[in-house]
Amino acid sequence: NLVDDSTSPDAAIALPDTLAALGKGGFDALVPFDFELRLPHAQQVQLAATVPLVAANLKGPEDVPVQPFVMRERKGKRIAIIGLVDAEHVKRYSLYQADHGWETEDPFVALPRVLRDVKQQKPDAVVLVTNLQEDELPRLRDAAVGVTAIVTRFQTRGEWDYKERFETGARNARQELLPWVMVGGSKDQVGRL
Question: What is the CA radius of gyration of the chain?
Fold first, then answer.
């Protein structure tokens, strides 16, 4: 979450500063999660106007655009950034208001479709950013054919050594291990998935 806890009274005070910082921070994409999806509608509109919301399996209301992926160019290389939200988590905790036009789709249904669309753009690299639960990561790795790297959210559940767990796991369809970075983790949380 890049936005403060939207259920906190202090969050309403901090949100304008947070949005200003996001706008100046040069963020290429934001995969919305807990706090972003709990924001009041007007603030979700502001957030989407500040930083591109990216999630292949999440559809927002018309005035809160959510793209399945974005293309960026860095040092002459074209990079696709795909977002995937944990649809079950979103539904379980009612993090979006269906009556305001939010819809989710199974990430494993959305991913192959978006990967086909991305492939047509001929990127040099494909980065998948997700907040899926850790028990879904092996399945995601196997479904991520054509993905260059996976970025996940910091996992706090259980006592897993993620690097060890995934570096020794089954390989994806290309028989390669994917570079994997866990945002919010320590340097030990960088490895291969």
Answer: 17
Distances (CA, A) of 130 to 75, 86, 105, 137: 24, 8, 14, 10
Tens of pLDDT, residue by residue over 149-158, are 888 876 554 4
Distance (Å, whole) CA 68 – CA 53: 9
Residue with tokens 């036009």: 101
Q: What is the pLDDT of residue 16?
A: 75
3-state secondary structure (DSSP) of residue 12:
helix
The label of the residue with tokens 């092996």 reads 138
Pairing between β-strand 149-153 and β-strand 125-130 as defined by DSSP bridges: parallel
- pLDDT tens-digit map of 74-97: 889 999 999 999 888 777 666 555
Q: Angle at which helices 9-24 and 41-50 pack, to 10 degrees? A: 20
∠ CA 7-13-17, rounded to 5°? 110
Residues 6+ apart with CB under 8 A from 98: none
Instruction: Please answer whether residues 162 and 132 qualify as being in contact, where contact means their C-beta atoms are separated by less than 8 angstroms.
Output: no
Spell out the residues 6+ positions from residue 184 whose beta carbon is closer than 8 angstroms to its own: 153, 154
Cα angle 187-118-84, degrees, rounded to a multiple of 5: 50
How far is Cα of residue 144 from the mean position of the Cα atoms in its chain? Answer: 14
Model-wide pTM > 0.70:
yes
